[in-house]
Amino acid sequence: MPNPIFPSSRPDRIRNLLADLVGFDTVSDRTNLPLIAHIESYLAFLGVKGERIVDETGQKASLWVTIGPEDRPGLVLSGHTDVVPVVGQDWSHDPFKLVERDGKLYGRGTTDMKGFVAVCLAMVPEMLEAKLATPIHLAISYDEEIGCVGVRPMLREVAKKRIKPLGAFIGEPTEMKVIIGHKGKHGVRATFRGLARHSSIAPDGVNAIEYAAELITEIRRRAAKLAAARSNDSLYDVPHSTLLTSIVHGGAALNIVPDTCTVDFECRGIGITESREVTDAIVAWAKAELEPAMKKQHPECGIDFEEILDYPALDTDADAAIVTLAKSLAGRNDHAKVAFGTEASLFASMADIPSVVIGPGAIAQAHTPDEFVEMAELERCAGFVERLIVHCVKG
């Protein structure tokens, strides 16, 4: 159970909550239920009850929380609970124990994105005291890091509700900049099924790696073509869609014709559905050009394709009400777009909720050893939420 004695200062509340959250090892291949239960206990002490959405395995859950009137459209603060692995990283301390040095809070997930979640939870007492006219929703998800998995069942439930939220703020690390767009992503795994033979009679086999190499070469050729067709959207730091091969596995021994090879590749597209369109075209090319040649050598050979990740691009209109509100709450007039993906595009595409991305910390710190977020950033974020509360009191 959380300590019922809340620190009098907001920074201490944020620190304590962030220390609690970091202390849960919620790498995506593990359950997040202990963390969700901890948040539920904290909220219950404050008299708030959330709606738990459990996945089909029973080992993961999202949490949807409404503070304020339930019969009016509200605004969403959204964050995920999972973090990336620490294996193989050179940390100077236990990554699942919060350490503070020189105004920086170190620990896995401090930036991406337990810092934002901690701020939102720390501000719940203020939300309750404010007597909100417009409700504030907390949307706490799981498995964002492996393809925005956990937010989808939650959004399906939200989409069924009689009253739809007015908009959503997704608190990924943007240094509190207002982000109105990001690229979509589609990832595919191609598994080449060849025919093993002793390498001394290599022509009698079907070399899965060599056919995979032809796919990789085609991916690289198409990537160069995408890079040459630069977008006019200058808000992106990489102003074109990107395509690459990221993982390759194949072969068993030097003297064996390899009978299997897997190739993982992805496209990050600027257009809403561009990433899938690009990868679909590659799959069609491989089925037309490579697979028939493999089957000609042996009919049981071929290529299997599997979707491993998919989310659309985000492209919120710069004049949208949620963007204007975000700028007002953040105290700035500019906006930007980013290459990395977030759950914001799913809020927009699955539940028709206009969304922007804005949160504390820098993306450069995400996923790194000795990940940290500056306390000053968390305090800036708390100021954003404080101004949101005032806005929601006015209705």
Automatic annotation (TrEMBL):
<dbReference type="Pfam" id="PF01546">
    <property type="entry name" value="Peptidase_M20"/>
</dbReference>
<feature type="domain" description="Peptidase M20 dimerisation">
    <location>
        <begin position="180"/>
        <end position="292"/>
    </location>
</feature>
<dbReference type="InterPro" id="IPR011650">
    <property type="entry name" value="Peptidase_M20_dimer"/>
</dbReference>
<keyword id="KW-0055">Arginine biosynthesis</keyword>
<keyword id="KW-0963">Cytoplasm</keyword>
<dbReference type="InterPro" id="IPR001261">
    <property type="entry name" value="ArgE/DapE_CS"/>
</dbReference>
<keyword id="KW-0028">Amino-acid biosynthesis</keyword>
<keyword id="KW-0479">Metal-binding</keyword>
<dbReference type="Pfam" id="PF07687">
    <property type="entry name" value="M20_dimer"/>
</dbReference>
<comment type="similarity">
    <text>Belongs to the peptidase M20A family. ArgE subfamily.</text>
</comment>
<keyword id="KW-0170">Cobalt</keyword>
<dbReference type="InterPro" id="IPR050072">
    <property type="entry name" value="Peptidase_M20A"/>
</dbReference>
<dbReference type="InterPro" id="IPR010169">
    <property type="entry name" value="AcOrn-deacetyl"/>
</dbReference>
<keyword id="KW-0378">Hydrolase</keyword>
<dbReference type="GO" id="GO:0008777">
    <property type="term" value="F:acetylornithine deacetylase activity"/>
</dbReference>
<dbReference type="InterPro" id="IPR036264">
    <property type="entry name" value="Bact_exopeptidase_dim_dom"/>
</dbReference>
<protein>
    <submittedName>
        <fullName>Acetylornithine deacetylase</fullName>
        <ecNumber>3.5.1.16</ecNumber>
    </submittedName>
</protein>
<keyword id="KW-0862">Zinc</keyword>
<dbReference type="InterPro" id="IPR002933">
    <property type="entry name" value="Peptidase_M20"/>
</dbReference>
